[in-house]
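Reply to thread "Modeling small-molecule complexes from scratch"

Following up on the discussion above, here's a worked example others can learn from. I took a protein sequence and the SMILES for flavin-adenine dinucleotide and predicted the complex. Inputs first:
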Amino acid sequence: MSAQRKDSPEKTFAEQMAAETGIDVRKCYQCGKCTAGCPMVPEMDYTPSQIMRLVQIGDREAALRSATIWYCASCLTCSTRCPQEVKIAEFMDALRERSLKAKKVNPRARKIIAFVKSFLGGIRRAGRVHEISMVMEYKTRARDLFSDVLLAPVMFVKGKLKLLGKPVKDRQAVARIFERTAGAK
Amino acid sequence: MATGYYPGCSLEGTAAEFDMSIRALAEALQLPLTEIEDWNCCGASAAHQTNHLLGLALPARTIALAAAQGMEEIVAPCAACSNRLIAAQAEWLDNSGLRGDIEHAIGMPLPAGRLPIRNCIEFLLPHIEKITAALRKPLTGKKVACYYGCLLVRPPKVVAFDDPENPVTMEKVAAATGAEAVDWGFRTECCGAAFAMSSTASVVRLCGRILDNARSEGAHMVIVACPLCHANLDMRQPKGMAMPIVYLSQLVGLAVGVAPKALGLGKHITPVAPALA
Amino acid sequence: MARIGVFVCWCGENIGRTVDCPKVAAEAAEFPGVVHSVDYKYMCSDPGQGLVKEAIREKKLTGVVVAACSPRMHESTFRRACAEAGLNPFLCEMANIREHCSWVHEDRGEATAKAVQLVRVMVEKVKRNEALFPIKVPVTKRALVIGGGIAGIQAALDIANGGKKVVLVEKEPSIGGHMAQLSETFPTLDCSQCILTPRMVEAATHPNITLHTYAEVESVSGFIGNFDVKIRLKARSVDIKKCTGCGLCAQKCPQKKIPSEFDEGLGMRTAIYTPFAQAVPNKPVIDRAHCTKFLNGKCGICQKICPVGAVDYTQEDTFIEEKVGAIVVATGYRLYDFRNGEKDYGIEGYGEYGYGQYKDVIDGLQFERLASASGPTGGEILRPSDGKPPEKVVFIKCVGSRDCAKGLSYCSKICCMYIAKHAMLYKHKVHHGTAYVFYMDIRAGGKSYDEFVRRAIEEDGAVYIRGRVSRIYKRGGKLVVVGADTLLGGTGGGRVEIEADLVVLATAMRPQYGIEALAQKLSISYDEYGFLSEAHPKLRPVETNTAGIFLAGACQGAKDIPEAVGQASGAAAKVLGLFSGDELEREPIVAHVNQSQCVGCFYCEQVCPYHAIEREEKRDKAGNLIARVAKVNAGLCQGCGACVATCRSNSIDLDGFSAEQVFSQIGGLK
Ligand SMILES: Cc1cc2nc3c(=O)[nH]c(=O)nc-3n(C[C@H](O)[C@H](O)[C@H](O)COP(=O)(O)OP(=O)(O)OC[C@H]3O[C@@H](n4cnc5c(N)ncnc54)[C@H](O)[C@@H]3O)c2cc1C
């Protein structure tokens, strides 16, 4: 098998990812410690170690289409404890980025993407996140209008929600950051 | 030495009491903080999860501003903010190839060296003696569960703060108030972070586990140093839990005699006042 | 005039497949000085060697080049053949056209051309070879064995039974090593003490063995056959000749709360103590760091009570010197410190398993003590925190081992077996309990080993779960073990949480503390983890790269008892072989100093790893000192060439590898 690989000029998915991110999942020996410690596993379609496996066997499609990459909370427990020092959580970021670019986002990630987009949209416009606007935008995007309706008035009374945000002065500078990093729409 | 203060977005909104208590405490302990002029959002997980460069450039602008405004360190009480600032700075210091791209994106030069960035605990840790000296209302007899969550201690090599599996610093600060820190098992477990809205059930499940353990190990309240953790734990409690979630700065503030109102103690969804009385 | 013979070997297909051997032979025939050149299928076979011998005699060869495999493989074979035909063996050289050529190249044309080059280079060297004669050194037929674990005991007994004297040095108050701590041993479950203690006694009473316990090697000088060893006998504070081992002193000692090393901290001992009841010698020592008499001058009970007046608080460390001809190092292992990590080695502890703060998270040796009839619980399995029998025990393999993040990447090899054993022992003692084993792989590659593991699973019902454990935390009185079963997938992902009463960590095997210092005293090398290095991983597994020093047991790498004993017997056989003659012959590949050229800078002395450089004074006829120059002690020199490379005045050369020879080889490249 290794001989075959040498002959073909094409890099495997794992090699390609290693070159691009510096994270080499070929080091993963499938011990499952990441999965064992992952708080989000119940929400995932593949366990974190299975995602590593998909990349190891070159199943790019399944990895990018998985719900798992979106349900990763970036809590970094996996990366901290991995005996092979694979930066698993950071690798999930890289897969998400590629999943978005390749338009292969799992349908179960709809709300999560809506949240990310609303969040980033807020920053793009104002440089800071104004929570009410962000939540409103999210609710529209996610078509999720009625969750937490009871919480909002309480928060408002407690002074946790401000009607007006304080945007940055140099809004252009922030918008430029988004342009120049070709940020999310 | 000028210390830049970076409240971040949450502290301007849902976590107003964190901001209030930090400012009030800083004043009480005579630790001057100057808010960084025109700071912007760090991008939180939304940025780094979907666009690596954006996740670096957003914190970079704030750091560059602080440096340009003559600040020699930044206090970022929000654990997510401090984590993003530290991680981004570490990345461009480690990988010089990135510096040009980031400077281009933000249209400003980055500081050449490392600007120290302190989270809420690190802000207070050097001043334990001051706190002990200023004690007005020792919290003797209060059993507190110090909760670190993820971003204060991970990734350990990058944040280089405390032990990732058995951190002790928050307990040290809490002990200075006379409170007793309980030994419990969920100090660095994740609360579900940014999934509060997009996967609420996960957050409810995770917060439930954390609060259950704190309760069963005898805690009267949970102490936090992160607005995200606070929001989740405070608002997503299982029925009948009623566990007060208190910011470390509130705890210390109360102990050194800052007025409860100035600490925003009334702003919590799950009431905290009775437990602190 | 040189008359060189070239013999090209096909090595069956090994060389012949990629190298055109007849062509190599034909081209070599044309080299200046070559008078005979042939190829043959198997040059090392009897007829092949015959070809060499015949040519030496008939063609009056002055040198031979055998183009074949590595010199490590067959140089001695062909040199012997040459000697039999009357040619000095050092006039025979190998050109390695197998490992260096046919095995690593694919293109036949290129490989053949390279083989021709390799032969030409060797022909140039052989033309300049000189006859060399083995160096003879006298042998002291007495061996030193360092470490009195099972490996050291076995080596000592084998050498002693071979009729040679042995000095056995053990740093602890008793011999026995870790095997004495074990309960029952895989794969047969025989009682460790029952098979070990008779050997301990035999070693202590053997007329050919001198035993020094509570002793350490202070310094070593000399060379193979002629080592001078200084041994420190640590002050026992007990006169071992007077002491009868009655044990009264330990009974009366008021300091009773010192964690026992032998019981791995699960039991207590006194300040005057023997490590365990079956200790050999069964004579106590005083642990001065914990003794009230030494701490504040009060007490003195043991001295008052000793019926034979053996307690002596004034004893000091003493030193003895021994001359030995060979040394066997058998210093064994210790377990990785999962509690604190090992800062000096950059190895981290296991925070996710509680850094040892949970009393009921223990290591394998602690479990052995709990399961051992001689242990603190008398062999009942009771958990340390509250002394109750645990209903659920979780065993976790590969703690430290195979964990790059903590700093150790190797497999400790024995844990798969002893964990299966532990699960069995536990089930034999706590019938209604459950044993869970978290594993990544099951490595049970010994005789009857896999069957043993299967028995633990199939007959004793141990629950094996494939996955690592992410963390352990406390909930109430229980330890919650959070792991994964990677053989289950899908939603939920096979996450496993077990509420355990006791957790046993199979921690990595590490070389003894202080091994580096000992290795430096002995001029032997060690690997990045501190395990002592064998001279060749396959062909010289019990030798070190310092002649006359051998290895036995777990000091060289993780090993179980059968392997440790096997290696010990191997080392003993090497020692007995060395002692079989009055003199020993050494390869004459040693350095020589051209003293008329030496400027006396002694850089060579600094770089020589074997302390083989001596200083010699040159005097004129009137006895006036005219120069101090370097001299090589041929007994110590291992022919490494470090001095040659460092010599500023080009006045050192290595016999068999002189500068002229090496340059002629380079010049021979076309
Ligand atoms: C939990 C556990 C269970 C095991 N169960 C089994 C089993 O069931 N079956 C099996 O085959 N194997 C088992 N083993 C492996 C077994 O313990 C080893 O294979 C064996 O003890 C190795 O013997 P050794 O003599 O090489 O080393 P050791 O037993 O470590 O002995 C080395 C000796 O050298 C001494 N020493 C060290 N340094 C010096 C020095 N500088 N100077 C003088 N003396 C020194 C030490 O004090 C010690 O007495 C188990 C191991 C563990 C950890």
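What I'd highlight from this example: Chain C has a mean pLDDT of 95. The longest strand of chain C covers residues 215-223. Questions welcome below.
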